[in-house]
Structures are given as C-alpha cells and as structure tokens.
Write a sequence for this structure.
C-alpha cells in the first residue's frame, strides 16, 4: 500500500513537471496575473467605498491583506488607495463595480482556459453561458473576499467585547491571532473548491475539486509568506528597479498566485483521469 502511494506521488510530480511545459503554465499564469492586476484595485476601491456604510475601520481591512502581502506591496496598495479615495467623486462606486466585473471576468476567462487545457477539453459553451458563468464566479469570489475580510474583523470585535467582560481579553487576542489564520484558510479553500468545480468545461463532482483546492490553499499561503519574508529580509527591489520596484513585487506575487491556481487545476485533472482509469 505504501509503495502504491509513493508511485502515485511520483506520477503526480512527473505529470506536473511535464504539463508545465506542455500546457504553457508560465504563459497562462502571466496572462492571469495581468488581469488580476487590472481587477485588484477596482475591487479594493469597491470595498473601501462600502466601508462608510459599515462599522469597519480602513486599517482593519488593510491588516487582513498585510498578513499575506510583502511590505512593498502593502505600501503601494495603501498609497494608491489613499490617493484615489482622497480624490473620489460620486461615481467612484459605480465605476469600481464596472471595472471589477469587467477585468475580473477576463481573469476568470483565463482561468477557464487554463483548466480546460488541464482536462484536455475544448470550450463548447456559448458566449452567453460562458460570460454569465464568469460573472457569477466573479460575484461569488467578491462575496467570499468580502466575507474573508469582514468575518475576522467582526469576530475579533465580538470576541473582545465578550471576553473583556469576563476578564480574558489578553488571552482571547492571543488565541485570535491563530484563529484568524484558520478562518482565512477555510474561506480560501471554499473559494478554490468552487472555482475548480464550476470553471472547467467538464462534468465534475464537488469533492473531485478538493485535492486541487487543498494544494492551492496551502501553496498560496506558504508561497505568499515565503515571498514576503524574502522581499522584506533578503532583497531590495527599490534599489534594482527604482520607483517601480513595488509594482514588480506586486506582479511577482500575482504571478505566483496565478501559477499555483493553474497547478491546482492540473492536480485535479490528474486525479480525475486516474479515477476514470480505475473505474
């Protein structure tokens, strides 16, 4: 049984190495990173435009992103959002909604293309169906993103209120630091599961997306923390690239994110094909 497990693991690694070149994963990841960049700031502007109607401070929202993003990326995000929000006008919310849906839909289309390659299927759905699916996935991802942001913030405020009255505020805050990571991890896993289940043009069971979702969740968290640690301690992109150093780091982060998402699709395709052969 152990030998069989090792053989499957080696087969998976061999397949992934082969598919990286065959399916042009670097090129697809670069395309996805470009669309992620276009949709990132409209999405953040949209969320920030809603904050005046919610009891959530701007800094709490930024702290959620800060847990994963390198320092230079956070500086770029904070500066850009500060400039935009200080010069906002009445149509900013409407513009950010349109911008988010348009750019993110292109990003979803790139994701669908990558997943179809992983499963060796062609896109046979009509333009209306594929566009509608992209918009629905978009809305779902935005909803999950907002939940990922709001849930930890409200959870912390509620916990502080309850445990302060019981005299355990300090203990709760220590526990919350670990619990916040757990909540974010679970929400990311659910987001990736939905993406891997719905996006490919092939009939799949929800549980067949779990392997790739787990891979992408763990891979994205580990790679984000590793990149942040490397950029913050061993590299100075500002010296090499000057004023655009932060943009380079942001693009690198988005590229790694896209690459891991595509790899997760390849992992699901591998196990899906293996299960078909075993049936």
């Amino acid at each position: 049984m152990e030998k069989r497990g090792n053989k499957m693991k080696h087969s998976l690694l061999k397949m992934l190495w082969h598919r990286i070149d065959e399916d042009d994963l670097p090129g697809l990841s670069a395309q996805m990173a470009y669309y992620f960049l276009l949709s990132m700031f409209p999405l953040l502007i949209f969320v920030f435009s809603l904050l005046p109607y919610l009891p959530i401070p701007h800094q709490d929202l930024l702290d959620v992103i800060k847990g994963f993003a390198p320092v230079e990326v956070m500086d770029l995000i904070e500066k850009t959002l500060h400039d935009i929000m200080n010069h906002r006008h009445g149509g900013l919310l409407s513009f950010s909604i349109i911008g988010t849906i348009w750019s993110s839909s292109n990003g979803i289309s790139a994701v669908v293309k990558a997943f179809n390659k992983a499963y060796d299927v062609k896109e046979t759905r009509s333009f209306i169906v594929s566009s509608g699916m992209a918009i629905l996935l978009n809305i779902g991802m935005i909803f999950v993103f907002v939940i990922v942001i709001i849930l930890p913030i409200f959870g912390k405020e509620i916990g502080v209120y309850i445990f302060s009255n019981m005299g355990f505020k300090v203990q709760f805050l220590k526990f919350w630091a670990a619990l916040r990571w757990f909540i974010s991890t679970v929400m990311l896993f659910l987001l990736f599961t939905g993406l891997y289940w719905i996006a490919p043009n092939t009939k799949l069971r929800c549980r067949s997306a779990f392997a790739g979702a787990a891979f992408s969740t763990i891979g994205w968290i580990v790679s984000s923390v590793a990149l942040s640690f490397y950029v913050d301690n061993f590299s100075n992109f500002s010296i090499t690239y000057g004023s655009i150093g932060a943009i380079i780091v942001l693009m690198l982060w988005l590229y790694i994110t896209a690459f891991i998402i595509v790899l997760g699709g390849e992992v699901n395709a591998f196990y899906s094909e293996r299960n078909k052969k075993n049936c």
